[in-house]
Amino acid sequence: MKLPVAAAAVLALAAAPAFAQGVGKAPPPAPYKKVSELVKLPDFIPGIGTLYVDPKTLPAGPFLAYDRDGKLVSTVYMVPMKDLDGKKKFDDLAAPGGAVDHVDFYYNAGHPGVEEPHYHVVLWHVSRADEAKVAK
Q: Model's pTM, two decimal places?
């Protein structure tokens, strides 16, 4: 009995940061806004999910990404190429979703909301298997 209770406690502690900030389930609290209501993007973007952002943090974010069930799956930063080329420093990048399982880093030529070329830095809070829930 002690092992299941201890395991549940560890899982609860690992999840505490996301739920303490109230971002574990969509929609997250203010000041986060649904990205599709701010710019011309679909509600759900295959490969990344449904995005929310505090508009004051644009263009870099963090953006909170949710699966179709409204569960937080990742925190995304969209870092403009000009900031990378200019050697801009990014301090204290938050991971509001808590523990990070793995990280993806990839180029994007631009899209509504972040039109200039940039890199997506995706901090996945779920396993690769659960990442597949936002693939389609």
A: 0.81
